[in-house]
Design goal:
The chain is built from 15 helices and no strands. It has about 200 residues and is an all-alpha fold.
Length: about 200
């Protein structure tokens, strides 16, 4: 019953900021911190909870204030940092910090966050992980210059995304029509024809 109440979207902030938020069961606390109605004081408490799933729920709640997300961005748990990297309230400065995280899933989440700065995406364009680089090509804030510079990427899927990108210039697309990978070349031909 406590878990159901903690999860319900109509549960009031006052009810969530009751003994539910300090329940002995970490799943109840997690549900409280996931709830869209969780008040800031509950989320602040959730950020320092001993249970990683409670901290992760707090980091994933779009009501968590930027100062709480900044703290959670340095958490020892990968899931917590990943949730902070995906949160729409995470500031560009915190995203820039997370862009150097050792975990490539976190760096990819940074590239996918609409708050990420162009300078952060430019740095991530040379990331060692191809999934991070793919996310950079697809990010709306990535500059055309950065997208075009990624046309020579060693990963064919990254090159294919460049070939499909509306930010790729004609010279880049023309070069990609000669790519050794047929899917890259085909995508570049298609992009050139449909402009």
């Amino acid at each position: 019953v406590r878990g159901f109440t903690a999860q319900h979207p109509n549960t009031s902030p006052e009810t969530l900021n009751s003994p539910l938020s300090t329940d002995r069961n970490e799943w109840v606390r997690r549900y409280v911190c996931e709830n869209v109605n969780a008040p800031v004081e509950v989320l602040e408490r959730g950020a320092s909870d001993s249970a990683e799933w409670v901290r992760s729920a707090t980091a994933g709640n779009n009501n968590s204030p930027a100062r709480v997300l900044r703290v959670l961005a340095t958490d020892s748990n990968d899931w917590v940092r990943s949730s902070a990297a995906s949160n729409l309230n995470t500031t560009p400065a915190t995203l820039h910090l997370l862009a150097s995280d050792a975990n490539h899933f976190i760096r990819k989440a940074v590239a996918c966050n609409p708050n990420v700065l162009m300078k952060t995406l430019t740095a991530l364009a040379s990331d060692t992980d191809p999934y991070v680089r793919q996310a950079v090509v697809e990010a709306g804030s990535t500059s055309a210059k950065t997208v075009n510079s990624m046309a020579a990427d060693e990963n064919s899927y990254v090159r294919r995304l460049v070939a499909k990108s509306p930010k790729a210039n004609p010279a880049t697309l023309l070069a990609l029509t000669q790519d050794s990978n047929e899917y890259v070349a085909s995508a570049a031909h298609y992009n050139l024809r449909t402009r």
